[in-house]
Amino acid sequence: MKITADTNLLVRAITTDDQKQAAVATNELQTASLVALPIPALCEVAWVLGAGYSLKRPEIAAALRGILSAQNTVTDDESALAGLAALDAGGDFADGVIAFEGSALGGTEFVSFDRKAVMMLKNQGRAARLLA
Predict the structure, then answer these.
(1) Whole-number pLDDT of residue 65
(2) Each residue of 23-42: pLDDT tens digit?
(3) In the prediction, which pLDDT does 99 show?
């Protein structure tokens, strides 16, 4: 069976906050021959773990790395790595993904009202501009 993992499936497996659903989620992830991890789902997982479960960035990064390291998972590796690099730099997973994918689509500068995102990207040597 080849599955696409929704955010709630991943969150249940990571947090085990609902034992019954966690067991079902873990079984699905372990028995699937392929687990597709769409980047939007990973962005949502990162946000939910931070906002809903108060996990710190290193904990979120470790949880995502755990999921991504499973032998049966597939994702856009470059986008996921950009998101993880943003987390490691103190930023948000989604900001790293957005900047990376925008660049891949031809954008030459990340533009935002988010001061923290702009500074994080500039610190990574990326072109970013803060709007006022």
Answers:
(1) 98
(2) 999 999 999 999 999 999 99
(3) 97
The residue ranges of DSSP E strands in the chain, in sequence order, are 2-4, 34-36, 73-74, 110-112, 128-130
- CA angle (90 as vertex; 119, 36 as ends), nearest 5: 110
Q: What are the boundaries of each domain within the chain?
A: 1-75, 78-132
Tokens of 1: 């069976």
Instruction: Identify whether the C-beta of residue 67 lies closer than 8 Å to the C-beta of residue 108.
Output: no
The low-confidence residues of the chain, meaning pLDDT below 50, are none
Tokens encoding 122? 């500039």
Nearest alpha carbon to residue 4 among 72, 81, 92: 72
